[in-house]
Design goal:
Blueprint (H helix, E strand, L loop, with lengths): L7 H7 L5 H11 L6 E10 L4 E4 L1 H11 L4 E7 L4 E6 L3 H14 L7 H6 L4 H10 L2 E7 L2 E2 L6 E6 L5 E10 L1
Antiparallel strand pairs: 1-8, 2-7, 3-5, 3-8, 4-7, 5-6
């Protein structure tokens, strides 16, 4: 039996669905409900060298503008030398995080990438790979669900100031 989860008619005709969420989405569309997707790209200026920038306000603003009450928000930085995560964004912890990243992957670590390309930013690629480019958080009652002291941050690991594009995508 052949079926594609992206084709509602095939799912309906077969009565078989490997993905329970897809079947639920088909039923919702049959009742006139639509899944919504809303996104925007924000630009963040950074100083490089694991500079940490709080983007919580911009993410919440995007969620609010979406009109989506319950769902998910994905926050992803575009590029291979930056990361998105959460932290309590206060000066002492920001410095602790920078020190930890420097201990884990020092900026003067030998890197074949840096030797090959001469850009001396191999460490920034390694840091970004360890942390990852993005996160997904729940949206409940039109608000990003985070803890009281939890902020969403961009960490730019590159060895120079940059302008980073961050995609914020809300689904629900």
């Amino acid at each position: 039996m052949h079926y594609r989860s992206s084709n509602d008619r095939v799912l309906q005709a077969s009565g078989v669905c490997l993905n329970p969420g897809a079947k639920k989405a088909v039923k919702a569309r049959q009742k006139g409900k639509r899944r919504m997707v809303h996104g925007r790209t924000i630009t963040v200026s950074t100083a490089g060298f694991s500079d940490i920038v709080d983007i919580s306000g911009e993410v919440q603003s995007t969620v609010s503008a979406s009109g989506i009450a319950d769902g998910l928000v994905a926050v992803t930085v575009i590029g291979s030398t930056a990361s998105v995560t959460t932290i309590e964004h206060e000066p002492a912890l920001v410095e602790d995080m920078k020190e930890l990243l420097e201990k884990m992957v020092p900026r003067n670590i030998r890197s074949r990438h840096s030797e090959t390309w001469g850009d001396d930013n191999g460490f920034s690629h390694m840091r970004a790979s360890l942390m990852g480019p993005g996160i997904t958080l729940p949206v409940v009652d039109g608000r990003v669900l985070t803890g009281t002291w939890q902020q969403i941050i961009v960490v730019d690991h590159d060895n120079r100031p940059r302008r980073r594009d961050v995609r914020v995508q809300v689904t629900g």
